Amino acid sequence: MSPPVAPAGWSRWLVPPAALSVHLSIGQAYAWSVFKPPLESALGLSGTQSALPFQLAIVMLGLSAAFGGTLVERRGPRWAMTVALICFSSGFLISALGAASEQYWLIVLGYGFVGGIGLGIGYISPVSTLIKWFPDRPGMATGIAIMGFGGGALIASPWSAQMLESFGTDSSGIALAFLVHGLSYAVFMLLGVLLVRVPRGTGQGAAAPGGGGAPAVAGRAGAVEGVQVSARSAVRTPQFWCLWVILCMNVTAGIGILEKAAPMITDFFADSSTPVSATAAAGFVALLSAANMAGRIGWSSTSDLIGRKNVYRVYLGVGALMYALIALLGDTSKPLFVGCALVILSFYGGGFATIPAYLKDLFGSHQVGAVHGRLLTAWSTAGVLGPLIVNWIADRQEEAGKHGSALYSLSFFIMIGLLAIGFVANELVRPVHPRHHLPVPGKDADVRQRQQPESA
Amino acid sequence: MSDSDSSQSPPDRRGLIAFAWLWVGAPLAYGLYELVQRATQLFTG
To answer: Where are the domains of chain A?
Structure first.
């Protein structure tokens, strides 16, 4: 499959919905918890067992994004979206078979392994293409797509719950729900496969024969300008590892709140005159999801105006300040606690959405999708680190007889430390050394010509 | 490029753009509606 080059008159505003159709679908992964209680009762599973498909899916997301990135760059976004569609939908269909036959290993294999590959390839599939279409606003463009990943759970959570209510929560009801999910997501993602195009003049577009003539609808869209670094060279630079630390620290800090949001707000105000009910705590979790999503599009668009380094200074510096406020004064005022948590979650989303544009600034758009894929291992690490810190410390504090906000104070100070490490890593980011740059064809030929002896 | 090629204006894609954004916007609006319903519980619950 050759990369689909945009025909004449193709609008770049068709590319974000193509990306969204994939990201809104694969974002379903965060709504897996809807299936957990029915699976536990229908198949007699423990909570740990029912979490297994999701955990394997997230591991596969990281691995397939890291190892499949170069292939995605070479084959183009349509190939990647097709692979994502096939894997993600097949994952549900295999799971449907597993639920119908009450073979849980099939659900783990289907949703976790096969579907997880779809998550990773789907996540990185539009990133490079969006950056090439929107060289003037890369933060906004990738922010739209990555916002979709957050939005996917918002759609899937009530939709899946309603479906299970209609079909029943026994094994055949779950199987039917998986089947409908697989087929619906296949149709929904098909829009992305059909609509996505690479702008003319990019590495991908140039390689495609008979690509037609897409005019410069986006001004300089498609022009590969400035410093270009291959994915293989990028991982050997200190800049890549600085960004890895930045992303890992920022995500860990966000997960620190997200992981235990409902019990946290309940514990913080348990001894106050107005304790937080379970319903209100659920509302708080929903509000955090909204902040996470708004941060993805809002902050990454802001980064186009104030610069990537500055926006990460805000995420990490102001984020640490917000954590300090919660740790020191959070239990004195509910609006203060909620406000600080919302800001932290908006930074969490913003950190995810801004990183592709930061990569583009440092390594160019040549293989930005592949570099981004490799960087997502920071997400997998943070996914383990964040919950581990908060849960382990809260359990130890509880054993020590503490309660209320005291359960979380130590983890909040650790989060401040992690954000400070991220802040320092951000300050250490410098332009990539020229020895890592790809040779510029014209300039290279010019140098070679000048190096030829006069007599030749 | 011949004269006949350059005189052809590119097809109008506004309908396709509207359809594509509606395709992704409608389910997202549903998700946001459900989210707002739950989020208000923080103040009412």
So the answer is: 12-199, 231-436
Give me the pLDDT at residue A453, please: 39
Name the strand (E) or helix (H) holding A1: none
Please tell me the distance from the alpha carbon of residue A142 to that of residue A147, in angstroms, as a whole number: 8
The answer to whether A138 touches A299, Cβ cutoff 8 Å, is: no
CA distance A302 to A298: 6
| Closest chain A residue by Cα to residue B17 | A14
pLDDT at A448 over 80: no
The answer, for A289 touching chain B at a CB cutoff of 8 Å, is yes
pLDDT at A382 > cutoff 90: no
Give the distance from residue A284's alpha carbon to the nearest chain B alpha carbon, in angstroms: 6
DSSP-assigned beta bridge partners for residue A198: A5
Residue B2 domain flag = no
| pLDDT higher than 70, residue A206 | no
For CA atoms A182, A185, A191, A192, give the dihedral sign: negative
Closest to A22 in 3D by CA, of A160, A123, A154: A123
Regarding the domain with residue range A231-436, which homologous superfamily does it belong to in the CATH classification? MFS general substrate transporter like domains (1.20.1250.20)
Residues A12-199: name the CATH superfamily.
MFS general substrate transporter like domains (1.20.1250.20)
Do residues A135 and A202 touch, judged by C-beta distance below 8 A? no
Q: How far is B1 from chain A (nearest CA, A)?
A: 11
Among A94-98, A143-147, A255-259, A305-309, the minimum mean pLDDT is found in A255-259
Residue B34 lies in a domain: yes
